[in-house]
Each structure stands twice: as structure tokens, then as C-alpha cells.
Amino acid sequence: MPIDAAKALAAEPRSGEITWDRKDVLLYHLGLGAGVPATDPDELRYTLESRLHVLPSFATVAGSGSPGVISGLSMPGVDVDLARVLHGGQSLTLHRPIPVEGTATATGRIAAVYDKGKAAVLVMRTEVTDADGPLWTNDAQIFVRGEGGWGGDRGPSTRLEPPAGEPDRTVEKRLREDQALLYRLSGDWNPLHADPEFAKVAGFDRPILHGLCTYGITLKAVVDTLLGGDVTRVRSYTTRFAGVVYPGETLRIRMWRQEGSVRAAVSAVERDDAPVLADTVVEHS
Q: Is 189 exposed, middle or buried (0-12, 13-18, 19+ CB in 10 A)?
């Protein structure tokens, strides 16, 4: 059995130092499409160092995401084919606002292993702490196709009931043709997002956008439209990756206000509103 759940869960966590500065934050925001219009005061808080606020989803790339998903897939008890791996979901908990620059310790471990029958699900948890205490916790849900069926715990369902009624706000975001080329400069160098030949081998007509880029774009839309542009109000952010996005497409981001949270659903306009992000929740103050 390529995945030994007991061994994976018992493995020693891996820790490493991560650092970031305002240039990293600015580049991340530009990779999400911030800065349009370039002189808009609401955009300058993402693009001008003297006004800079950090969008919380920056946590997924800070220090290039170290220790990272690939590191987790080499943990004891895990021996899988990367071609069978899918990023199924992402959740982020903020313990306090992310500083514009910092040095911290990132500690990664496999927090759970679930048996979904036709696939295994690994929950890779990264906890980040600096000299002042905990900063954030990232959970990446990784599906490994063909590795289930050993009779293990199926784990909790991540599917939510659809929001009721019409959305409170709908935003359409047209992606740049080079969106993935910009975003990958924040640390995800997977050729799937840049090399047409590699993308074809992986089963796609052309390179696809990083799921975590869509994740960041969606959070920015929620913050800008329903949270008054205040990034410090975000407490947690969870999503399930429901489909691919191609650079140059238009994202339709629907948002519903709830008590202490915003529900969101994201689709690709040009492909008959094909789902992209589902079960998406931003909890806020």
C-alpha cells in the first residue's frame, strides 16, 4: 500500500524558516490582478509600499509556501505518483494580521489521512509562528487518485448546502492571458501553468491557472466588496477546488452575506458558468 496512514500520521513534523518582504507581497498582489485601475486608492493599498496591507491568502505563498505540498508528499508513509495528485481544497486560519515583512518558522505535518474509496485524502497542515507567537495555520486537502480502499476513516464531508436566495453581490473578473505566468513568480513553478506541451500531457488543452491564484482573487473580491477593504477582518477562509480555470477567462464571483461570514461561489463565465470554487466561506469580524 503506497500510503501507510499510521506511519504518515506518526511522522515527525518538518520545520523550516521562512522569510518575506514587501516586494514578495506586492508581487503576490499583482499576480492576483491587483492594480487595475493603477491609481485607484482602493488598489494602491495592494500595490504601493507606503500604504501596503497584506491580503491574508498571501499565507499560501509566504516563503514560497515552505515546507509545501511537495515536501508533504515525501513524508514517511507516503509514496505516491505526482500525476495522481490533485489539490482538492484549502483552508486558512489567521491568528493575527500578516505583517508586511517577516521571518517565521513553518512546521508541516500530515494531520489526517482519509479513505474515500477510489482516492486517499491527505490533510497537510502548516503552522507558522514568529517571535510574537502564532501567525496562521494552512490546511491543504490533497486527493491521491487510486490510493483509497484500505478500509480507513472516510473523514468529514466538506460539501455544504448551497446558499439560499440571490447573491448579495456578484463580481466579474477578467483574467489576463499571462495571469499564471505572473502568479508563478510567487513560488509555484509547476510547468502545468506555463508549458503548453506539459499541459497536454497532463490532459489539458493549454496551461491552467493555479487554483491558489483563483483562491486569492476570490478573497480579494470579498474583502473589497463586502468587508470594506479591511484585510484584518478576515479570520478564516476555506474553499473546495471544483474545476479548472484558463488564463484569459472571466471569473464570476457570487457572494452571500451571512452572520459573521460570507459564502462565495466562483464559476467560469465563458464555459457556461462551469464551477471553479465551491463550498467557499470567509469568516470575519
A: exposed
Residue 29 known to be catalytic: no
Pairwise CA distance, residues 230 & 134, whole Å: 21
Catalytic residue among 24, 188, 224, 279: 188
Number of H helices and number of E strands within the chain?
A: 7, 10
Is 199 strand, coil or helix?
helix
Nearest one of 141, 123, 138 to 8, comparing CA atoms: 123
- 36-to-2, 42, 47, 181 alpha-carbon distances in Å: 47, 10, 10, 18
Average confidence (pLDDT) over 193-207 = 93
Cα gap 240→272, rounded to integer Å: 19
How close are the terminal C-alpha atoms of the chain, in Å? 45
The pLDDT confidence band at residue 157, using thresholds 50, 70 and 90, is confident
**Residue type at 118 in one-letter notation:** K
Those residues with Cβ within 8 angstroms of residue 54's Cβ, 6 or more apart along the chain or in another chain: 25, 97, 98, 99, 100, 231
- Catalytic residue, chosen from 24, 193, 210, 224, is 193
pLDDT digits (tens, 9 = 90+) for 138-148: 999 999 888 99
Q: Which residue has the cell 492594480?
A: 35
Which pLDDT belongs to residue 68?
65
Asked whether 278 and 239 are in contact (CB, 8 A), the reply is yes
Which stretch of DSSP H or E encloses residue 143? Answer: strand 133-145
Q: Is the whole-model pTM more than 0.85?
A: yes
> Is 193 among the residues known to form the active site?
yes
Report pLDDT digits (tens) over 267-276: 999 999 999 9
